[in-house]
Write a structure and sequence with these properties.
30% of the residues lie in helices and 22% in strands. It is of the alpha/beta class and 288 residues long. It has a single domain, classed as Rossmann fold (3-Layer(aba) Sandwich). The relative contact order is 0.18. The N terminus and C terminus are likely disordered.
Amino acid sequence: MDNQKKAITLSMEGANTPVLTADGTPYIKAENLNIGYSGEVIVAGINFESGPGEALALIGTNGSGKSTLLKTIVGLLPPMGGQLSVFGIPPGNNHARIAYLGQFHHSGFVLPLRAIDVVRMGRFPQHGLWKRMSQQDDEIVLSAMRTMGIEKLADVPLRSLSGGQQQRTYLAQVLAHQADLLALDEPTAGLDAGSRELYLHAINDELCRGASIIIATHDIHEEAALCRQVMLLAHRVVAFGPPQQVITPEALLETFGIVINGEKRLHVLECQLMDDETQRLGLNLPRR
């Protein structure tokens, strides 16, 4: 077998074809979904499907509905209308299969936690809060920390870390979960260029593993353009589809109210199995 053969290809062909799990059920399916909170609908009429090995970017200004949609998918907010299923059942019933990274983290500043303690929390949904960590759990945690470049910070108190180091710690927690669905809200906030590269490598690996990823982001040139599908939000769905079709000056003007150049670096992330020489040289990079 050609060792360069793609394990999962996130190409533009068939971008509107329903994506299904082995039993024929999409990981996420929204039909005329209304989202909001406190009795107010923020975005109405959302329709999309997502499945294994697929990445979806949610783009919009603060308050446009990105975080609200993520919270609805993971079960933190109830749908306000329409239909939403996650792994074939209503949201909020799949915590072991979902890893959620929100914008705000409170536990690390209330409890005296070390970085490794935070990452270990990613294993709790798999075996419960009180069950003893196994050797396999420890290996998964250390692997996640190495992926995000924080293995040497394992015993450092979280509150002593810089903002970027804290964000990498929480990203490592998400990776340690080994979830089927990753819902990430502004995951690159506070990351420098090197840390962003580590993050993009990690996302590539998660897609290769078969995870579905939804990212709320402002980045139209890197994160969003790497996703198979993009949804522009401005208290409504401005546009939805492949990035080459959606990220246009006209659509971005509707979304942000200003003209943004959306022509830079439009490409799609592809999961590839690298040959031995590429892996030896550490060049397991997303295909551009």
